[in-house]
Please model this.
Amino acid sequence: MLALKRGFIGFFHQTRTSQKIFGHHGLPALSCRFHGGSAGCDQKRTGSTPDQFRSLSISDKEAQKLNTLVQQTTRKFCAPSICRNWNSWTKEEDEIIYEAIENRQSTFEILKLFSDRTVQSIDIRMSLAKRAQRPDGTIENVFPINKYKAYERNQDGSMKKLKGKVQISQMKRFKAAYPYRRRPWTDEEDSLLIDLVRKYAGRPGMWTLAAEATVDGIDGARVLDRTSGSCRSRWETLIESTQGSKGLWTPEESDKLVKAVKKQLPRAIAKDLFAKDRKQKKHPVEQEATDSSPSETSQKEVVVVDVAWSAMLEVIDWDDVATAVGTRNIRQCKRRFRRRYFSSPNRSHWSPEELDRFKEAVK
Model:
């Protein structure tokens, strides 16, 4: 009964505020939550970006050159077609992922092996494969996470879930092995990050190398003591000060953004996505199953449609979109598209029916 209540509350919250998050799997720095809002939020969020490069020992020209190498190395994988494989993972596919992780292949190289799978599906499967590594497949001088795994590898090569929970003592030992904590970035760490990007830009797995490497300085060896995702996120924040204009989006920039996105999507999906009336939006797959009247579409069907959109929009190459816009960087184009054209939270007052449903769910 408690599980049913939690499921009802989760579904009610999803229909009340439908938030979309794109692809973060390939880009940890860009995978943060975005809420729908007006263009004024863009100005506030963009204007708060620190302009750090002018106070550090790096010129704008060198920053642009380094960022080009970074994008070529850690560019998000985009599937060549919109066709997806929604079937269960086979033993052969599990074996390919497991061997790729044992050989320390980069995430981009693993994504290229499965062009018919979504980035989210591959990322989840990779996490299971990492937990299922055997003792002879782990890396030296690395905490043996395989001893405290939640999944194991069978003799036939597949992975299955084990019964039981991870003990608290095991979690404490794992946290002690990786003493990362959240803290603000200092000027010394920003300078060290730039030196590491200069050293490893263009190499596969550069962010992992930058997070684990040390740089010899005047005061001795220095280490960031940061995760690879944190290093990449900070680099994206620093590079924003040299790319893209700030302030409100102009109508010309919005038109360029819409045209650039439409070129990479099928005509039916693009027409459905940029419809002015939310009630007129309906995915082609759902047209046969729903009634002819758009107003009769239930909230549950709208959520199903939004999930289908989020899966199909993974094929957008935001590098090309930012190039087509010209005056905005990749992060600004993503943020603008999510807020303006894809986020649809209900910001009106709560209706009596919604309040009654919420009270029943809490009980």
In short: DSSP finds 17 helices and four strands in the chain.
